[in-house]
Structures are given as C-alpha cells and as structure tokens.
Amino acid sequence: MILISVEGLDSSGKTTVAETIVTYLRENRIEHLYLHEGELRRDAKSPFLSPFFSLKDPWVRDLLYAALTISTVQNCLSKVPPNTVVVIDRYVDSLWAYTDEHSNYELSEYVREFVHAISFDAPIPNLTFFCNTPLTEVERRRTSLGESFNLEFERHTLKQFRERLGRAQTRVVEIHPETSSVDIINEVRNRLRRF
Fold first, then answer.
1. How far apart (Å, rounded) are the C-alpha atoms in residues 32 and 9?
2. Which of 10, 62, 181, 182 gives a 20 to 30 Å CA spacing to 114?
C-alpha cells in the first residue's frame, strides 16, 4: 500500500489537492482508495453518538477521530492490495498539530499525550502534501463560508505543522495556492515510480 496524506489548516486547499490526486489515479486506472473525513460528517444524522456522547464535545470528537483515522489506515494495510494508493485528506500530522497544549480545545494532558503518542505510532505516509496557504487567504476562504477564524490559533497551528513536518522532510512536499495541478501530479508520478 502506498499512503499519500494531504495536510494543512482548514480551508487551505487540502480537499482540492486530494481530489486532484484521486482524479489522476482514476483516469490512469491506478487502484486507489480515498479517505476523507467530510464524508463521515455529511452522512451523520445526528451530532450525538448516544445520549451521553456528543460529537460537539472536543474530547469525544478528537479521540474518536484519532482512533478512527489510524484504525482505518491500519485496516487498509492488511486488507487492500499492496499496489493500492491510499489518499487521505487529513491524517496523523493534523492530529499532532491540532491537539497541542495551546489548541483551542480544553483537552486534558492525558488525552493530549494519548493523541500525540498514537500520531507517532501510526503508519507513516510515503508522501505528504502540505498546503501552505497564506493565513490571509485562509481567513478570506473561511469568512466567505461563514466560519470563524482566530488568527492567533491559526498561527500557532501552522507553527505546529511546520515543526512536525520539518522532521519528515523526505516525505513532505510543500504546496501553495499557485502550485499547479501538473506539479502535484508530477510529484505523485515520481513517488509512484519509486514504489
């Protein structure tokens, strides 16, 4: 299995990049699987898992997201054919960046340590695209969608991404809004040749 992750802030262009990759794989009849958290949210009928657990609770949401994401990828390792390309929109680097001690979430130290520990023990992507979109553009996109934007939080989260991904430079390709689809596809092609 070849694992490609797409990381970055909310509204940085991750889904667009992932869909560009998936379109290329489909058009070239390369066996692939696309994992995207948005599909889970759209299919959810209720924000409650039970009368006791709300997905609006950051602890529940983040722990379940972390466990589900990593479990899904580990399951793929054992069940999908070895030549399958798995493209995941948000993965372990996001878990790490969004759950540090300065995040907006009121997570206990124990929960934070757990999420960080599993983010280091999860299968590592062969290739990670990091959408490094300027904060002014992220803010514009979010406000146009009616979503909130906290500059201090976003700066900190971006710093966390850079710290985490700086340790893994051989698998990381930084892309910007002006990066062309052709450049993204060429990077995918080059990496697939190596496997």
1. 25
2. 10
The runs of H, that is alpha helices, within the chain are 14-27, 37-43, 58-79, 92-98, 109-121, 135-144, 151-166, 181-194
Could you tell me if 21 and 86 are in contact, meaning their C-beta atoms sit under 8 angstroms apart?
Answer: no
Nearest to 90 by CA among 192, 18, 20: 18
Check: CB of residue 85 under 8 Å from CB of residue 30: yes
Structure tokens at 26: 């489909």
Name residue 189's amino acid.
R
Query: Is pTM beyond 0.90 here?
Result: no
In this predicted model, what pLDDT tens digit does every residue of 99-155 receive, in sequence order? 765 555 555 666 667 777 776 677 889 999 999 999 999 999 999 999 989 999 899
Cα 81 from Cα 179, distance rounded (Å):
31
Residue count of the chain: 195
How many structural domains is the chain composed of? Answer: 1
Q: Which domain covers residue 175, as residue numbers? A: 2-194
Rounded Cα gap, residues 187 and 177, in angstroms = 16
Q: Is the dihedral of CA 55, 59, 61, 63 positive or negative?
A: negative
- Supply the CATH number for residue 136's domain: 3.40.50.300
CA angle 127, 129, 131 (to 5 degrees): 170
At 156, the amino acid letter reads: H
Q: Is pLDDT above 90 for 43?
A: no
